[in-house]
Amino acid sequence: MLTYKMLIDGQWADAALGETFETRNPYTGDVWAAIPKGTKEDAERAVEAAHKAFTSGTWPKLTASDRGHLLRRLGDLIAENAERLARIEVTDNGKLINEMLFQLKYIPQWYHYFGGLADKIEGAVIPIDKPETFNYTRNEPLGVCVGITPWNSPLLLLSYKLAPALAAGNTFVAKPSEFTSASTLEFAKLVEQAGFPPGVFNVVTGFGADVGETLTTHKHVAKIAFTGSEGTGRKIGELAARNFKKVTLELGGKSPHIVFADAEIDNAVNGVISGIFAATGQTCIAGSRLLVESKIHDQVLEKVIALAKTARMGDPLSTSTQVGPVTTPPQLEKILGYIDIAKGEGAECLLGGARPSNSELGNGWFVEPTIFAGVRNSMRIAQEEVFGPVLAVIPFDTEEEAIHIANDTNYGLAAGFWTQDMRRMLRVSAAIQAGTVWVNTYRTISYMSPLGGYKHSGIGRENGMASIQNYLQTKSVMISTAESVANPFIMR
Ligand code: NAD
């Protein structure tokens, strides 16, 4: 069993109280690593270290080009270590090695892209309407930024925050999920190796109510970038608002995936299956509501079920596995609970609906790919985020009705639809209330394109050039060039 330490102020440390907690492998159920159980004291130490690194030492003196260079070096180190980091994430969260390897090989792009942006942060000279006044703006870093991440894609979701934060000149404290802390601690070794000064990047492991809330409320924290559930996001937003801290919140979803009758059906079916069963449904962008035009409803459903039946469940470290376990025992219970709720609401379970009986799956936390038909959009199974391999199928008759159902939810993270009609592509994309809309594809994400939620799915956008503004604040400087200053008591 491995025993990890946290990185605070350039030192590898145990928790102040010396306690640890266990992290378990979702496929075997075995404990494989001990993680320091940080508390308030550790979180405060990390923020103070980040504050010191922001205000003194070498980091604030580096040129923007030097910062960019460090980020690009970090990107290269991630690429060199991609396979090792991917295996750690799979061991911790049970997602498929194919997917995590793809993610880890892609993550360096965030550091190359934002590293390239570091020395393109510019101000403006404004010809303001006051004579003899020279006015210019500076875009300055905020200070200490905190990144709080969930368990489904720990390093990808950290990179959405860390790369722009460091490019802008901030310092950072990361708090990974208590279920998947190991990869962030391994990643911290690469940050050190890349040559970032001590205290610029710190990791505190521990639980949300303790470490998370201390980080959210500490007076030296300027910004919290959070990805996780709606409930935690609300709490963080409330706490941050009390002290006027800036926040980016990337929360949950109940994304509609619409198949119109004019779609290329086989392509749509592939998209629908990948939209819900990839990562065993544990993605915020999961296309968990399948809206199908009535005239093709039975045909699409038949094909979706047939394809879902072929999914091979097994060891997520094996490249031939297609559906892995879910990440945590509470998540397993939550998914099974929603399956019961859906049955109780009268939805018809056409596939799955239970833990698999296959003995080869051993002690893994598996749930069968599950499909419910006959769902009404008002049902809980259509309104609440399950975060598991559960698809709710809802028929519709007209484009207007499809848009109405798609938007009739508190969430608005993502949506997808399948059609061959160009006018419909533009019409429906505009009408859907979601931060990302995919047409004839699903789940495409890029470091260059903004990602974030409408409505309860969050506040702000990550990725893309504009996201660096989340980590900057603008100062307006006015310099008088006048020879004399008028007596203020003599009105002009
Ligand atoms: P969660 O909200 O339970 O936990 C996320 C993180 O918040 C963890 O690190 C946790 O320790 C911390 N936390 C918990 N309570 C806290 C508190 N009071 N103060 C500060 N921090 C606290 O979420 P989860 O179960 O780990 O992740 C699943 C959720 O994440 C789903 O709702 C999913 O939709 C969402 N998610 C969203 C996106 C996105 O980009 N929008 C991406 C992935 C996951």
TrEMBL record:
The active site is at residue 250. Gene3D superfamilies: Aldehyde Dehydrogenase, Chain A, domain 1 (3.40.605.10), Aldehyde Dehydrogenase, Chain A, domain 2 (3.40.309.10). PROSITE patterns: ALDEHYDE_DEHYDR_CYS, ALDEHYDE_DEHYDR_GLU. GO terms for molecular function: metal ion binding; oxidoreductase activity, acting on the aldehyde or oxo group of donors, NAD or NADP as acceptor. Keywords: Metal-binding, NADP, Oxidation, Oxidoreductase, Potassium. Belongs to the aldehyde dehydrogenase family. This is Aldehyde dehydrogenase.
